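Bench notes, afternoon.
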Amino acid sequence: MESATSRAAPTTVTPKLGHHIGGRVVPGAAGRSGPVFDPATGTMSAQVAFASASEVQAAVAAARAALPAWMETPALQRARVMFRFKALLEAHAEELARLISSQHGKVVADARGELARGIEVVEFACGIPHLLKGEFSDTVGGGIDSWSLRQPVGVCAGITPFNFPAMVPLWMFPIALACGNTFVLKPSEKDPGCPLRLAELLLEAGAPAAVLNVVNGDRVAVDALLTHPEVAAVSFVGSTPVAEHVYRTASAHGKRVQALGGAKNHLVVMPDADARLAAQALMGAAFGSAGERCMAISAAIAVGAAGDRLIAELQAQIARLVVGPGDDSTVEMGPLITREHLERVRTYIELGVQEGARLVVDGRRLTVPTHPGGFFLGASLFDEVTPQMRVYKEEIFGPVLVVVRVPDFERALELVNAHEYGNGASIFTRDGAAARRFCHFAQAGMVGVNVAIPVPMAFHSFGGWKRSLFGALHVHGQDGVRFYTRLKTVSARWPDGAAAGTDFNLPTME
């Protein structure tokens, strides 16, 4: 099958990306489309078709048609498809990482890390025969046994963001498919190349043609999935306003929903912490992937004497930060995804200055002479930020770190817990008692101790609290299996004698 990355085209012709429906590439109807940029150069590298409601209907119909045979496929055989898929992802890791970098902008090394975290979920899905085992109770009543089992929910949909075009889709569809569901994926239209390639590799791994379908597009495609009567479950990762729309709309149409929203992740630096190590952790957590991560640390809370030491270390390390195109192995931070997003982040920096925060490092001054048209912005650092400022309250999603100073641990914990988002929070300290108290009382779904980005491994689950999550279940891990299955409990008796007569009482299993 033709690869999404190998479709050759004359240099004067812009490649066109379509959809992947029923196991084949569908170019998309003539009409609406959007640009895909190379963020390092600022030039359009491809055009992607935007699906109409009828094209979404075709994808759902393909998934629905494939469902009966796939859900009856033994779990062991579905797991073997996942084993082969994992091997193909590893074999094509460099190709996928460079594809991610070329459309998102993150450095290739970071793209490799993203893919590795996604592959871990595929590896988890390889154990699905064990994960789907139910429970059995012998003789719950006279001659009655009872057992539970998990069965697929049906056609599932995933709506994924631009910042992790491999990892987030791999959080969703491998577990859904391993559980016996079929899937329609709507990735970000900003960097669709990798999700299309994942669909090709899954087909090569031996999955039936229509168990995974990919439709590209915008809100038209999203709303068509949220309201489609054949879609049983919807998974979403993105901003909080959209997460809330997804949750409300899909729930109102009778679907189960997990919708992961925005974040303003905090890192508390205690006075006893090593300032250099804390600053190093903040550099990667705040500026890795140009801050375009839902688990990026964008707010540091410096407790007491930690403030001055932390600011000094951060200034020194930012001065050494290498910014440039993602395919340069010496680069540590690449460009932002689009010019519009670049301007949005620049506006936040201007806003922080207007609000009275002290701009210690101004990333707007950065230039990359070799790539003057790229969507580059340097790392920015604010000090003396207050909780009332918008640069503290709102998710910026760019290379901007704000530092809030507080007198003690209790005030730091209050700030973490008072924020509307509760995705992740970390503490850097040598004090075990403070760390334990933080783990117990921090109102966040993921907590780190001397770990800046506490993203759980695939066999745990990822998700936040408060307005960072809409729905009861997190993604991947055991919660992923719970989300993509329905629990059924069976009670059975095999009478060995004459009928006992009609009983109008509630059964008591005696």
